[in-house]
Design a protein that fits this description.
The protein has about 600 residues and is an alpha/beta fold. The protein folds into 2 domains: about 450 residues, Alkaline Phosphatase, subunit A; about 60 residues. The chain is about 30% helix and about 15% strand. It has an 11-stranded mixed sheet with strand order 10-2-9-8-1-7-3-4-5-6-15, sandwiched between helices. Strands 11-12-13-14 form a 4-stranded antiparallel sheet, covered by helices on one side. Helix 8 runs parallel beside helix 9. The protein is globular. It starts with 18 loop residues before the first helix and ends in an 11-residue tail after the last helix.
Length: about 600
């Protein structure tokens, strides 16, 4: 047998030119080797990203999570042809902190985006709080990587800080190249005829405060007049002046709330004040389509943040009274149509396989939303207890879908705990950038789980905050099928037989309306996902060992939380007239409509609903 020689094995020379042939062969081998190395080491193309978030959508509102009555074929397609996350958890059960966590990959308490007062989210557009400038969003990182970045819809992370046009908290100051939408939450007060929740409650409180102040003021005048007390009359004049200075702007604000708080921005410009909700979802869809078409030849990130299905509910004419769940169902089905339009434009322009699509909700459905006529305006949280503003599973377990043809296998189901904070490192890594190392990032890359490189979530513990208060802890115990969840307190439901706080509209996080637990309330979510049967030392032999492990993890977590300025403190959330955005003079009551180009697009032939 012939002995092995050096590679390539020696063969009889061909009569093709002698030494020149050897040289050509060597050159060919070198070129082949370099080409192979180039192919193996080539950086895969960076994907585009379309991140879709619906406001207040319940996990039980879409077909792929079990709904049998609402039609959501486009959302269901994302699940059928991609990955479905069954334990996808919002970092907060309320809009503002949940979105802050989503954008930064960090618990909102780290950035001061978790309230210590009753104001858990921004109510006024003219508040001074917002996402701090030193926080890094995935949009900022991708923009530095050459991506075009756009946000369409709801921001809810602040606008101005010191002046009406400093745009300190504006999306364009946090990495987005383009913005079309609203900077604050959507309320019933924004649509005439839909009643009021916030203004009615605030007006009652202010009326009571004003009456008490007036009684006190005139009582002091009377006592001063009859000589029981002695106060200089100038003091009463100054006090009266202060009351007038306070009352006048408050009266103006309440009288003109819709114009001042419900408006539409394109980049820095107010283009519609007050916001007109007729065909708003079509206009947003048009903006999304145009953004994709305008950036199809370079990498892009689009955050499609729907204003629906937060109340006040609305739906365009062709969707109204079409669903089996009233106006709420109409709104859900209109959102599904819009998602279908985005999928269609990606498909027509051969961008589907180059685009990662993520779908979720910012928190669970709002159970307390019932109209004055008794119609349920909130969604469904499936088998899960509670809803928006609570850390029962119904408030934080949300839909989570990831669709990427050719990379994510169809009908992939992930039953491990994941978080909406995970999108930050997932998007950053897929873009080719590095996750920041100068701060704690609480989110984890989803791709190892989705591509089956890992079978267990790296989230051993998830911490559930009710505003700035640590409410519950989830422990995904290693080498066990159990997922433990311990509650330190819970809101007192009213009525008692309900799963919501119908007296206050949003469940509180502190005070006399919560119940504290010592020892903590403990559930095994793997056996009791509806959180109906709390465990005891008699029903769970390891009860105290489990709580001891959770307590140790909690202490370590608390030590990692920095002291920071609270962006949702009372002084940062109250209305400040000097920060008020206004597209015309105050004498014209801040009125304008410059969104005409979008109105001409409504329901164009090539994008007709199927």
């Amino acid at each position: 047998m012939e002995e092995d020689g050096p590679w390539p094995p020696h063969k009889a020379p061909l009569d093709c030119g002698g030494e020149e042939s050897d040289l050509e062969m060597k050159l060919l081998l070198v070129l082949t080797f370099l080409l192979t190395i180039n192919v193996l080491c080539a950086t895969p193309p960076r994907p585009n990203f379309v991140l879709i978030m619906v406001d207040d959508l319940g996990i039980g509102d879409v077909g792929c999570y079990g709904n049998k009555t609402l039609r959501t074929p486009n959302i269901d397609r994302l699940a059928a042809e991609g990955a479905k996350l069954t334990q996808h958890i919002a970092a907060s059960p309320l809009c503002t902190p949940s979105r802050a966590a989503f954008m930064t990959g960090r618990y909102p308490v780290r950035s001061g985006m978790a309230a210590e007062s009753i104001f858990g989210a921004f109510i006024f557009s003219a508040s001074s709080g917002g996402l701090p400038e030193n926080e890094i969003t995935f949009a900022e990182i991708l923009k530095m990587e050459g991506y075009s970045t756009g946000l369409i819809g709801k921001w809810h992370l602040g606008l101005n800080r010191e002046k009406r046009n400093d745009f300190y908290h504006h999306p364009l100051n946090h990495g987005f190249d383009y913005f079309y939408g609203t900077t604050v939450t959507h309320l019933r007060d924004c649509i005439p005829g839909n009643g009021s929740v916030f203004l009615a409650g605030a007006a009652g409180f202010l009326k009571q405060t004003f009456v008490i102040a007036c009684i006190t003021f005139f009582t002091l005048i009377f006592l001063n007049y009859i000589g029981i007390i002695q106060i200089h009359w100038k003091v009463f004049g100054y006090v009266l002046l202060c009351i007038i200075i306070f009352v006048v702007p408050v009266v103006l604000f309440f009288w003109n709330f819709r114009n001042l708080n419900c408006f539409l921005l394109r980049n820095h410009k107010v283009i519609q004040q007050p916001l007109i909700y007729e065909n708003l979802t079509q206009r947003m869809t048009n903006e999304a389509v145009n953004f994709i078409l305008g950036n199809q030849n370079k990498p892009f990130l689009l955050f499609m943040s729907y204003i629906q299905v937060h109340t006040a509910l609305y739906a365009s004419a062709k969707f109204r009274e079409k669903s089996k769940h009233g106006i709420y169902g109409d709104a859900v089905e209109e959102v599904d149509w819009s998602i279908g339009e985005i999928l269609d434009v990606l498909n027509r322009n051969k961008l589907q396989e180059a685009t990662v699509i993520y779908f979720t909700s910012d928190n669970g459905a709002h159970l307390e939303e019932i109209s004055s006529s008794g119609e349920i305006h909130g969604g469904c949280n499936g088998i899960f207890k509670g809803g928006k503003a609570t850390n029962w599973e119904g408030g934080i377990r949300v839909p989570g879908l990831l669709y990427w043809p050719g990379v994510v296998k169809p009908k992939t189901i992930i039953n491990e705990p994941t978080s909406n904070m995970d999108i930050f490192p997932t998007v950053v890594k897929l873009s080719g950038a590095a996750v920041p190392q100068d701060r704690i990032i609480d989110g984890l890359d989803l791709m190892p789980l989705i591509q089956r490189e890992s079978v267990t979530s790296e989230h051993e513990f998830l911490f559930h905050y009710c505003n700035a208060y640590l409410n519950a802890v989830r422990w995904n115990q290693r080498n066990s099928s159990s997922i433990w969840k311990a509650f330190f307190f819970s809101p007192i439901f009213y009525p008692e037989e309900s799963e919501g706080c119908f007296n206050s509209h949003v469940c509180p996080c502190f005070g006399h309306l919560i119940t504290q637990y010592d020892p903590p309330l403990l559930f095994d979510l793997s056996k009791d996902p509806g959180e109906k049967n709390p465990l005891t030392p008699h029903t769970e032999p390891n009860f105290y060992n489990i709580l001891r492990t959770i307590e140790e993890a909690t202490m370590n977590h608390r030590r990692s939380i920095p002291v920071t300025d609270n962006q949702l403190s009372v002084k940062n959330v109250i209305w400040k007239p000097w920060l008020q955005a206004c597209c015309s003079s105050w004498l014209e009551f801040c009125y304008c409509d410059y969104d005409e180009e979008n109105w001409s697009w409504i329901d164009p032939p090539k994008y007709k609903n199927k």
